[in-house]
Inverse folding.
């Protein structure tokens, strides 16, 4: 059974995934973790937890394309200008939703116990202060304050929630049917994806695939002295067993100091180091595991 | 080096592979004198008498790598260990390391001894394939 | 006895936090990729960021035991739920912006919130009034990274400029163009006005920590930039009298007295010299090699040989960064606290010496680092009520009672090792590997100015 | 963690004992260079003369005999007393069978005495501790597996979710784990008494790297070098050439009179510049292979402090064409990948050392002919500058 291909949105030679179901599918069914890079809307003051978009490593993209799991979408092309009708349709739905919110809020506040006079006054003051502050902030340091331009005052009186949509794929004016590519050659010809373009990148793709085919999960390893971190299971639950570095050919130079450094860092971080040797002629990876000998 | 007691044992390989003489000499001495005590290279029947003494120390020529390796056993261990010396100043490759395994008839692991001109030596264990670390 | 840390399995000692010497040793725990991210803790409004140590070693054969699979599913679902969170904002506080792709700017149509204290700049643009008259008017515009950041964090709604006549479209708010999603903003804004994904990732990373981040090179003439740095050396050393005389004399005269430097006998330990009979002068005599960044880096006279690529350096300072606490004035910014170069780790190696030198050349010399604050309990300064200066009579009384004057501790000098580590000038490079960001700082070392003997 | 696994019988030295050792060290290692000063006059007269700017101290220069060993590219000091001078006055060289000062023979003697008394030597203690550590790891793994199995059973039978941890009350940690009492078989076997085994000859020497040796003989004139092949003392001119030849990319095996083509990027010269630079500033400079760098810088020496800085030598060609044409095997001439910089920086910050990149510029061939390499005067065409590397952590630099 072939499941439908997951669309990867390609822009500026980077692959993004915006849809959470697609992200879940990639992780659970393809062992592809990518990297969250977007600000989480309500946790926007920290860098530990991030959210959509998920950006994929180029090696992940290549693996997924070769496994016939994804389609590469030329994302700028898929974004088309909406027609006036589409826009009107969208706007009226938007307005309906706002109106609904306002009526719901009104009926809810009727049920709620009325605010005491004092509380209502305080609240009003607070809101006025806030508004003044915001106005000042906005006009601060600007020669020509925005007020001169007629501000687009809200047509609706009352509070409602504005939604800033995460992804466009639900819009009527997004059409990826004519700009999806299912092979690397097609995507390259279309000018949206060029990885891998040389021996080094081919080696990285080959090694990535090699590790992935062993059933591993793979993350970025630059901070652990390699190209990848290699996990025995989902990184959410398991520590990496290895850091891995790619050697692009059997004759690529390797200094003894690199073995010392990898071995030493591995000992410290409780991981072994994998040297992954790519043979481009045979399209094969071989591995050597480095650990400190424990003597000397 | 010629006046050193180890020279007697190493002379054939040292003269054959002069470029690798330094690292081989240093590694051999470390294994024979540094790692184990009361153990003389010309006295093979003397059992290892201390916790770390190596036994059955042998010098094995690795023609393809223009050097020799050293094999031996650590006490209370049946496995023969293979030590391949190299100098810090050399440049190796993945293929070089694989050749070391092949030329030693594919032991599961080899120990790379890396020597520096200040007489320091470090050992790192290389295993073929993906060998997960111990918990 | 030797460095006890030289064995790979050595455990570094617990650092004494009071020493100045080690400021960042060992602790890389904050952002290193192999930390536990327990998304299940995110459900509360104030998430507790759990520390490491709650992962397991490996799954049971066959993808995990029943319990392992259960726990993993729970962790994954918590993560998927968290990233599903929508960007919603009250209609009273949302800002409206309008993206103009041709000029790579977003015009702030309605500014709300304090973000605009530090974001955006004012640009005069031609407008057409209702009477059909052309005039210019200043308006607040955002660079692509600023616009994208506000959209992404759910603070601004963005329209995209369109050629449709949208005046008739009836929405909750006046519709000014096509509504943009975060997705579309990523696709369109990155790649415009020199904004790469890597640069945006670094920008957003710093913004999330509260920094003020602006461009170093103005993208348009109206973009306000701080005054240039004073690039002169900090402490011009007063030359000792001997050196001044020597500098004044032609070299052949000094040679007459001091003698030609004998490269076969660099340290002249002759019987007849009367001074220099201690280690200090001996070491001084050994310092005859050319060292330090003041020596010009020579460029070969000949043109680079054919076949050698002449690549243009990716090492340009891109962002000016102000600490969150700076009282930042947008129209006349003060000099930044940090300047940052952003590179893609996959395509760019670390800077060469030449590239570093070029970056140092445009960076200001920094004063030596302040000594570390002592830990609370020892010498914390309490900003309590300041006592009025003692009266004249009080001072006389104290004197008569033979009280020593109040001890004022001398200002703490920075540890020389701290000074050596930070160097005279600093260049910060943000290194991005597919979204994984690391920051390195390179210090212009000056060990030659601080001999130990 | 290691200290907790030490046998309980071994107590940490008392504070004043440590202070006493420091005092001893200050005395033993008082001289930062092998040269010492002899004061012929009593000190009051000296201070009067000192006021007049006169210092009549006589310099006492030891004469140390070294053997240039081509194969190991090093100079050997075989005389024990001479080795001690170099080690104690400035920490030059390293015992080839020891981690620092030549102590092989002492260790042999100690080991025998210990064996006779059925004690453990320091090395055996280390071995024992390592064995214990291994046992600890096995015990811990077993305990973790047990906890996991229990959690699994709970989940299967009651549907309760208990996440098995990697640490906890039921899992031994380094602090709680105790070795099981040793049976005698793991102790070293009885060693034949001394009259059965001839007392070993000292096979150890103090090994100087070529930059160390050249620093001593060129600047301080306290070392003479004999060529181990030719069995004759070398002149300083010969040594200067011979040390370069030891690093030539194409091995040269002719007589010294036929000088080969020398190279401006010779690793000996590049390393010597860095070694001399930091020595002249008063640092004790030692090899850094264990920390995956070229040199470690100690403030006073390894017996006093940990090394403060780790130095990577980075040669820089003035003319890129020279680099392209070079056959010399110089590591680190090209800028590192970020992954490599990150690796060595991480290894070193983990042990509280700051990484220093020491750049050595190599003069352009078009500007400086190779003939200058026949004398150390060529060193004036090179320059050294350093760049320190540290991580920058924005979350910690906000105020």
């Amino acid at each position: 059974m072939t499941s439908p291909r997951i669309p990867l949105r390609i822009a500026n030679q980077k692959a993004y995934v915006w849809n959470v179901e697609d992200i879940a599918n990639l992780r659970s069914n393809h062992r592809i973790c990518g990297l969250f890079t977007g600000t989480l809307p309500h946790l926007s003051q920290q860098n530990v937890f991030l959210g959509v978009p998920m950006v994929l490593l180029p090696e992940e993209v290549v693996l997924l394309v070769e496994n016939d799991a994804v389609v590469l979408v030329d994302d700028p092309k898929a974004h088309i200008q909406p027609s006036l009708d589409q826009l009107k349709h969208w706007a009226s739905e938007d307005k309906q939703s706002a109106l609904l919110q306002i009526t719901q809020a009104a009926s809810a506040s009727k049920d709620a116990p009325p605010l005491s006079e004092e509380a209502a006054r305080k609240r009003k003051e607070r809101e006025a202060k806030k508004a003044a502050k915001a106005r000042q902030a906005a006009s601060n340091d600007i020669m020509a304050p925005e007020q001169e331009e007629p501000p687009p005052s809200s047509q609706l009186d009352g509070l409602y929630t504005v939604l800033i949509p995460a992804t466009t794929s639900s819009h009527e004016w997004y059409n990826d049917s004519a700009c999806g590519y299912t092979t690397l050659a097609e995507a390259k010809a279309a000018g949206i994806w060029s990885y891998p373009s040389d021996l080094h990148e081919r080696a990285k793709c080959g090694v990535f695939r090699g590790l992935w085919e062993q059933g591993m999960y793979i993350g970025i390893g630059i901070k652990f002295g390699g190209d990848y971190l290699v996990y025995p299971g989902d990184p959410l639950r398991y520590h990496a067993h290895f850091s891995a570095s790619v050697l692009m050919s059997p004759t690529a130079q390797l200094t003894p100091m690199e073995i010392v450094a990898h071995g030493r860092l591995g000992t410290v971080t409780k991981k072994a180091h994998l040297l992954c040797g790519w043979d481009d002629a045979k399209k094969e990876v071989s591995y050597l595991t480095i650990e400190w000998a424990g003597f000397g | 080096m010629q006046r050193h007691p180890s020279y007697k044992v190493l002379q054939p390989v040292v003269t054959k592979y002069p470029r690798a003489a330094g690292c081989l000499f240093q590694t051999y001495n470390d294994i024979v004198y540094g790692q184990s005590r009361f153990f003389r290279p010309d006295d093979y029947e003397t059992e290892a008498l201390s916790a770390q003494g190596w036994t059955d120390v042998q010098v094995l020529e690795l023609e393809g790598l223009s050097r020799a390796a050293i094999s031996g056993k650590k006490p209370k261990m049946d496995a023969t260990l293979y030590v391949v010396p190299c100098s810090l100043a050399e440049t190796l490759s993945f293929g070089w390391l694989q050749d070391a395994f092949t030329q030693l008839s594919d032991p599961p692991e080899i120990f790379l001894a890396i020597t520096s001109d200040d007489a320091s030596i470090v050992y790192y264990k290389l295993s073929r394939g993906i060998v997960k670390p111990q918990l | 006895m030797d460095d006890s840390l030289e064995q790979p399995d050595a455990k570094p000692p617990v650092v004494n936090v009071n020493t100045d010497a080690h400021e960042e040793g060992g602790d890389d725990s904050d952002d290193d990729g192999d930390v536990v991210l327990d998304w299940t803790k995110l459900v509360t409004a104030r998430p507790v960021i759990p520390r490491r140590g709650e992962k397991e070693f490996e799954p049971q054969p066959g993808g995990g035991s029943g319990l392992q699979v259960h726990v993993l599913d729970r962790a994954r679902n918590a993560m998927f739920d968290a990233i599903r969170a929508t960007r919603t904002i009250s209609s009273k506080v949302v800002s409206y912006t309008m993206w103009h792709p041709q000029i790579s700017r977003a015009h702030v149509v309605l500014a709300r919130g304090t973000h605009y204290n530090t974001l955006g700049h004012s640009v005069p643009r031609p407008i057409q009034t209702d009477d059909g008259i052309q005039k210019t008017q200043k308006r607040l515009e955002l660079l692509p990274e600023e616009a994208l950041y506000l959209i992404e964090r759910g603070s601004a709604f963005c329209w995209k400029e369109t050629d449709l006549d949208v005046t008739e479209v009836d929405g909750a708010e006046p519709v000014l163009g096509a509504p943009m999603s975060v997705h579309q903003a990523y696709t369109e804004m990155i790649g415009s006005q020199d904004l790469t994904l890597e640069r945006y990732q670094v920008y957003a990373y710093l913004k999330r920590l509260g920094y003020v981040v602006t461009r170093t090179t103005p993208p348009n003439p109206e973009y306000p930039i701080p005054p240039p740095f004073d690039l002169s050396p900090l402490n011009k050393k007063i030359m000792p009298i001997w050196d001044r005389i020597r500098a004044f004399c032609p070299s052949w005269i000094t040679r007459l007295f001091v003698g030609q430097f004998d490269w076969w006998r660099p340290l002249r330990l002759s019987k007849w010299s009367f001074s220099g009979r201690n280690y200090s002068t001996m070491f001084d005599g050994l310092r005859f090699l050319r060292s330090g960044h003041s020596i010009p880096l020579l460029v070969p006279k000949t043109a680079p040989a054919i076949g050698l690529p002449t690549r243009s350096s990716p090492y340009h300072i891109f962002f000016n960064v102000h600490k969150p606490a700076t009282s930042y004035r947008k129209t006349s910014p003060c000099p930044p606290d940090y300047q940052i170069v952003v590179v893609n780790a996959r395509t760019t190696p670390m800077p060469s010496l030449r590239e570093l030198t070029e970056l140092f050349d445009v960076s200001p010399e920094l004063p030596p680092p302040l000594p570390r604050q002592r830990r609370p309990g020892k010498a914390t300064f309490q900003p309590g009520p300041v006592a009025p200066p003692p009266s004249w009579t009080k001072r006389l009384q104290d004197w008569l009672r033979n009280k020593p004057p109040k001890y004022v501790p001398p200002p703490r000098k920075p540890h020389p090792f701290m000074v050596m580590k930070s160097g005279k000038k600093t260049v910060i490079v943000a290194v991005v590997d597919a979204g994984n960001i690391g920051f390195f700082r390179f210090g212009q070392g000056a060990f030659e100015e601080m001999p130990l003997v | 963690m290691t200290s907790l696994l030490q046998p309980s019988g071994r107590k940490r030295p008392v504070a004043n004992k440590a202070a006493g050792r420091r005092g001893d060290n200050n005395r033993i290692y008082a001289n930062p260079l092998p040269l010492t000063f002899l004061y012929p006059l009593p000190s009051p007269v000296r201070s009067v003369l000192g006021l007049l700017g006169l210092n009549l101290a006589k310099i006492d220069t030891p004469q140390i005999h070294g053997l240039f060993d081509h194969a190991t590219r090093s100079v050997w000091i075989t005389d024990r007393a001479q080795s001690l001078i170099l080690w104690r006055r400035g920490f030059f060289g390293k015992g080839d069978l020891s981690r620092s000062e030549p102590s092989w023979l002492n260790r042999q003697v100690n080991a025998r005495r210990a064996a006779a008394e059925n004690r453990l030597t320091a090395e055996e203690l280390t071995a024992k501790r390592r064995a214990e550590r291994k046992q600890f790891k096995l015990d811990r793994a077993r305990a973790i597996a047990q906890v996991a199995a229990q959690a699994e059973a709970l989940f299967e039978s009651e549907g309760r979710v208990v996440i098995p941890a990697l640490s906890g009350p039921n899992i031994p940690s380094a602090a709680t784990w105790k070795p099981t009492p040793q049976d005698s078989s793991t102790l070293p076997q009885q060693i034949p008494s001394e009259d059965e085994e001839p007392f070993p000859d000292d096979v150890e020497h103090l090994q100087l790297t070529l930059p160390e040796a050249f620093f001593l003989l060129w600047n301080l004139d306290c070392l003479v070098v004999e060529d181990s092949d030719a069995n004759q003392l070398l002149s300083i001119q010969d040594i200067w050439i011979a040390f370069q030849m030891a690093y030539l990319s194409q091995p040269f095996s002719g007589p010294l009179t036929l000088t080969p083509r020398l190279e401006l990027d010779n690793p000996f010269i590049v390393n010597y510049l860095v070694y001399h630079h930091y020595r002249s500033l008063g640092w004790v400079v030692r090899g850094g292979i264990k920390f995956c760098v070229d040199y470690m810088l100690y403030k006073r020496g390894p017996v006093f402090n940990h090394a403060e800085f780790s130095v990577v030598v980075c040669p820089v060609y003035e003319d890129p064409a020279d680099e392209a044409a070079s056959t010399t095997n110089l590591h680190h001439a090209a800028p590192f990948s970020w992954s490599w910089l990150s690796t060595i920086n991480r290894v070193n910050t983990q042990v509280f050392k700051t990484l220093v990149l020491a750049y050595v510029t190599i003069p352009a061939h078009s500007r400086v002919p190779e003939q200058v390499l026949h004398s150390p005067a060529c060193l004036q065409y090179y320059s050294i500058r350093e760049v320190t590397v540290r991580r920058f952590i924005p979350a910690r630099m906000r105020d």
Observations:
- The CA atoms of residues 80 and 100 of chain B lie 15 Å apart.
- Confidence is low (pLDDT under 50) at residues 36-52 of chain B.
- Residues 21-34 of chain B form the longest helix (14 residues).
